[in-house]
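User: I'm putting together a small comparison set for a docking exercise, and I want a reference complex before I start. The sequence is below, and the ligand is flavin-adenine dinucleotide. Could you produce the 3D structure with the ligand included, as structure tokens?
Assistant: Of course. I'll restate your input first, then give the structure tokens for the complex.
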Amino acid sequence: MPASPSTDTAILWFRQDLRLTDNPALQAACRDAGKLLPVYILETDPDPWTPGAASRWWLHHSLAALDAALRERGSRLHLLQGRADECLETLAATSGATAVYWNRRFEPAALTRDRDIEAGLKQRGITCHSSNAALLVEPWDHFNQQGKPYRVFTPFWRSLQPRLEAIVPQRRPSALPGVPRGNGHGLSLEELGLLPEYDWDAGLRNEWQPGEAGAGKRLRSLLETRLIQYPEARDRPDDEGTSRLSPHLHFGELGPRQVLAQLMQHRAGHRSAGLVRAGEQFLRQLAWREFAHHLLYHFPETTDKPLDRRFEHFPWSNAPETLRAWQRGRTGIPLVDAGMRELWHTGWMHNRVRMVAASYLSKNLGIHWREGARWFWDTLVDADLANNTLGWQWTAGCGADAAPFFRIFNPVTQAQKFDPHGRYLRRWLPELARLPDKWLARPWEAPTEVLAEADIRLGDNYPAPVVDLKASRARALGGWDEIKGIS
Ligand code: FAD
């Protein structure tokens, strides 16, 4: 608590920074304010990317966890719903707050909106203080040697590395200023209506613990037991080889500076070459997140438009039924179906399977990557505009540093290589469980007696492939031939 506060009452506006540790807006507010009103606003501002169903589920539980952490420290979270500018202006007027603190966001709509909010509050004599909680390096602070934004990952990563040593997280404040009186209680969490109306979220509840404590557990579990295997295991959907930190990072229950610091500390205590290598591999993935935010900031149109403009002329198919088969995990291609069912059930999908499912949609099915990005947006608990845009454009071959279009993932060989014993496929496709490994990734090629023995009737209890892999690959390459010469 400040010895003599420079601001009597302040508002702390929580957004995608739902944590108390390494939260610079919170630190600054604690330093400056005598009374502090922490608020979360469920925004109704116009934004084409309002959170999807799985993200809303996560948000509900994350807000509950944040409120509990604030209450343990004598504060509490004030919940509102509406336009952010109006909510903040009204709250400042009723609480007598003279300052608002927040951590910056990087999505195009949020950036424009934040600028307008700041201008409006300033006009009312309210000061605004913004900080960086979400990234290791902000996009406007990192350019290539020509002074331009990076479009290729490797030089971006190389230039980021020397900057990492100077990055240190902030501590959790030891005490929080009290809440000003007389603002009512705001809305209850239930009144925000974030939870689904019918009960489809059991899988999410079993898999995740939203909130700062859950994020800390995931990071500790990675560092203490699994980091050493990360370089090999990170490509294996049948193993829990990755951190599963993505939703925690998206909602800011854990910041990348904390991950970096804990990784460095862990490395200092275990000087093995294997661990150093594993730590570097992991950091490199975190740097993809930085790269994605860098691209979204510098190329904000890429949420809807391909960075490689030739793809605006690609002959995409309009095939609602096939799209639906993909969404439901009923394409007849086991690795794609397993991934889409994992997504539906847990709100998450392994990165390798995301690449395969996205390649299959945009190349084999020829359906616009935007349709896939929208479905992921609604169903992923880690739906993140920067990472999702990069992931889809990269896989579809039209983004920054993208996979070349002709690199079309073969879902059969991918399954055989990365799920060699079929554990992942059998887990998500129990109807195929009795098929021998040899045929599991390509049941349509299995001899009739093998299918009968495994009790599989293609087109009945498991779909026949909705498209032929070879023919659809050739069609995709034909589409590429049509556009690749466009300048
Ligand atoms: P780990 O391997 O443990 O990596 C640690 C962290 O690094 C992740 O939590 C994530 O924040 C970051 N990271 C890892 N890989 C990437 C990557 N390729 N791009 C950007 N950041 C990365 N990630 C999201 O967080 N949200 C999305 O909406 C999203 N959509 C995607 C869509 C497609 C089509 C593809 C191919 C990838 C997408 N990704 C997305 C990236 C990646 O699949 C996930 O970040 C990763 O699977 C999360 O699992 P993890 O936390 O166990 O990863």
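The mean pLDDT is 96. The chain has three domains: 9-134, 135-169+213-298, 309-483.
User: Thanks, that's exactly what I needed.
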